[in-house]
């Protein structure tokens, strides 16, 4: 309720064209999603099927079509660092637009946010994103993954990220092999988070695992 009142008192400006009214206006939304090119979360090479032909990964497919730059970066930063909760629905809409059709029995699984960040923001940003995405797809969203420690990946090197993710997650229950589990995250840099989450889900009993990510961090 507080964020709705804040939007009325201090309305948003489009992250792309600065038009007042929304964090991302409809014309800019369509411009940003006009040409979709999927990228591997690990090597960032383009592909069309969700399956990288170069990398060996513990999931069946992963879709990530937007680069974390420009308006997309501004929108994500507003969501994560400026408490703009209304960005969740827009990011979910972007994810919905850039992700292929999923099986009707798919369970949406958010990457869990570390506790200090939840306290700082006042909400679990990835859970909020996943819930909006699940609603748009008419799918079930379930918090199956939990953090075992509170490592911060922002600013970490590739080696540090890979090492941190080895034992980062645990699954809350045994999983059925008959469902598809779709991991949701806002940004991928090295692919370590998605891979670690997929391994944990697989160990818990999942057999069909995919991932949908809003944006990839460009290789610097």
Specify the CATH class.
Answer: Alpha Beta
Q: pLDDT below 50 for ≥5 consecutive residues: which ranges? A: none
Strand content: 15-25%
| Strand tally | 10
Write the H/E string, N to C: HHEEEEHHEHHEEHEEHE
Number of domains: 1
Q: Give the name of the CATH architecture.
A: 3-Layer(aba) Sandwich
Q: Which topology does CATH recognise?
A: Rossmann fold
Helicity level: 25-40%
Q: What count of helical segments does DSSP give?
A: 8
Q: How confident overall, as mean pLDDT?
A: 89
Shape designation: globular
Class by SSE composition? alpha/beta
Spatial extent as radius of gyration: 17 Å
Distance between the termini: 39 Å
Q: Main β-sheet, in a few words?
A: 6 strands, parallel
Structure description:
This protein is 35% helix and 18% strand. β9, α8 and β10 (208-216) form a beta-alpha-beta unit. The protein has helices at 2-9, 26-32, 70-81, 87-98, 115-121, 125-137, 158-164, 192-203, and strands at residues 38-39, 46-47, 61-63, 66-67, 107-110, 140-141, 145-147, 169-171, 180-188, 208-216. The strands form three sheets. Strands 3, 4, 5, 6, 9 and 10 form a six-stranded parallel beta sheet that branches. The termini are far apart. The chain has eight helices and ten strands. It is α/β, with parallel strands linked by helices.
